[in-house]
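Shipment paperwork, digital attachment
Item: protein structure file
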Amino acid sequence: MIEVSGLHIRAGVFRLDDISFRVNSGAYAVLMGKSGGGKTTILEAICGLRAFESGSIRLDEREISALPPAARMVGYVPQDLALFSHLTVRENLGFALNVRRIPENGRIDELAGWLGIAPLLDRYPAGLSGGEAQRVALGRALAFQPSVLLLDEPLSALDEATRIEMHGVLHAVRERTRVTTLHVTHHREDAKALADVVMELRDGKIVPVS
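Attachment content:
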């Protein structure tokens, strides 16, 4: 469950005021809105990468506003993926486990198997296709079994065929993990294919989309 209440964020002249919404446990929510409207800022606040002036964020009934990012149990895939170029795919997948000092215990091979990237484990990000890189970033975010998954425009740079393929991957992730997901996108096709709940950031407010 993700519950954001009365969130106020300011960064220079940019501001978001009184942002409130809820995503029920296990749901797949899509947040839409114009570029530059603050969708990424909201994701960053949830995962602990953006400070906010007031309000609260609760994940699975825990108030996490004061917790450091690694303690929030949030998996995050940023728009640029942020894969570590000097690490192999295996090392990228294991990064979050190492940070949290969680034993690997076969988790990387398990993830690579069901994400279809097992043959890539010894390769580096520079040699990956767009779809392969997306799968690696997704696997890295899921490696430590987060309670919440945040996706920032995860399919925006993909061609149409790979985009549709990734819809299937995200469906499979949901079926396997039941992780509560908040996915930012500009594409209504993504929302139609994936979402239980569609919201829009409009004029600084979150509104439901029927």
